[in-house]
Amino acid sequence: MPEPTALDTLRATLTAGSYEHRALTVVHRWYSGYETANRDPDHQGEIVTEDFTLHRPPQSGQPDVHGRQAYLDFFAAMDPAQANAHHLRSHAIEHTGPDTAQVTVTHDFETAGPAMNGSTLLQYDLQLVQHPAERLPRISICDLQVLARQDKPFTDALVENRVLAFVHYWCSLLEQPADSAEELRELLHPELAMTLPDGRVLHTFDEVAAWYAQAGELVDVSTHHVIDPVITPGEDGDHRLTVDFAWEGISRTGQPMTARTRHDWTLTDTGERYLRLKRFHVTALEPFTPVTAEEALAHHDAAR
């Protein structure tokens, strides 16, 4: 069997990066599902399989949960007065099969309310299953481990996790474009103003769909590195995100490319599955540049 070329390695690396965004979308949606007072079992149910199993740590004194419906019954019965927060510390992804992966995350879990108050460093070992007809993988098994008890004050994380779920989902849609832009529709605010580097301003779904189709015609596969995100919550539900994206891609003609952009977004929380993009302004810090596969791989490694 011939040795993989640098272009082969780059393509595999970019494909793995796109999966990482899909997996992190699921993680941040899981977190935020527990953090909002208006918990939605339907939205939470979208990210677990029918045979989902939740393995709780022995010291919790609570039984494991078997089956999607049993989990959703537990989820729906949670006290909305109990506030929860999850602050992601680390994540690692190991692909265990063509449609499966193990994702290990560690996070600070903080809770405050009538049931209990406290902070714990937790580890989740998640088994993810990718259904071919769906964009996002689903969690089939969640193993919880308590790594350490902590003495930390409660710090709300709902806006942070809602914003990051949007960012990772948005990136996943751009990196491996679908034939249709329909999945973008629920992400766009009716008052959208999307300013592109060339000065064009997009306002409607049809305009965004045309831009999306054009990007899909030019780029075969790509990945974005989320660099130094700064999230500023707004009291009116409009949250500001400033972030840089380092980008590597392969064009439809097989040409490796790199770029770096700076983004300033306003995301509105309407209580739906995802926030909605209201304002979008992007500035090119490094233009889209043809490079060798080796240079693209070096750019990828430097950005991680």
Automatic annotation (TrEMBL):
What this protein is called in its record is Nuclear transport factor 2 family protein
Cite the SnoaL-like domain residue spans from the record: 27-108
Q: SUPFAM superfamilies from the xrefs?
A: NTF2-like (SSF54427)
Provenance organism: Kitasatospora cathayae
Pfam families per record: SnoaL_2
Cross-referenced Gene3D superfamilies: 3.10.450.50
What InterPro entries does the record tag this protein with? NTF2-like_dom_sf, SnoaL-like
Its domain of life reads: Bacteria
